[in-house]
Predict the 3D structure of the following.
Amino acid sequence: MKPEELLDQLKINSSQKVQVTLEAIYEVCGEQVKQGINDFSVSTIARIGAHRGVPKAQSIRNKSGEKYRALIECFAQNNAKAAKAKVTENWIDEIKSPKHRLLVQMMAAELAETKQKVNEIVPPNKVVHVYDHGEPISEFERLNPIERRALDYILSDSFMKKWYLTTTEFGEMTDDSGKVVFKPGTVDALKKALRYL
């Protein structure tokens, strides 16, 4: 999240005094970024902004300074990412051929834009699990014994007889009048879940 977005969120439901203090911290941190200074420690921000409404370092570290710390941390993280990106792209300048250098710069810009779009779709720190059958499933993703028994029971003869169900070649379950009770693919889906989960 960008600092200006976080600032807007932090100001919601905050008192006028807290909003003014957040603005002051935002300005001080913004100046650090403009000057290319990568020091966003609480003590530094408090010292620089002492005459501009920024509380003392201890006040920011207290429980009541949680919003202030969040804003400072956001600036620190964003600045660190920007610095890292700049360092990783320095190698492009070492390419001797102007034509190749331009092409690589265009590709790097495209990659950065794509990464930004992905970050907008998938929020930072959100874990996305992709299971490709190449890695073992974690215990959290596995069916627990109760869930497994429930699925086993749906596929059992006793369940089928009790409800007068039969399976079809399409993996659906129909009742004794031929009406579809479970849609096509249900039986196959249950068997796969039991096999892999």
The mean pLDDT is 84. The beta strands are 166-167, 173-174, 180-182. The chain is about 60% helix and 5% strand. Residues 22 and 48 are 14 Å apart (CA to CA).
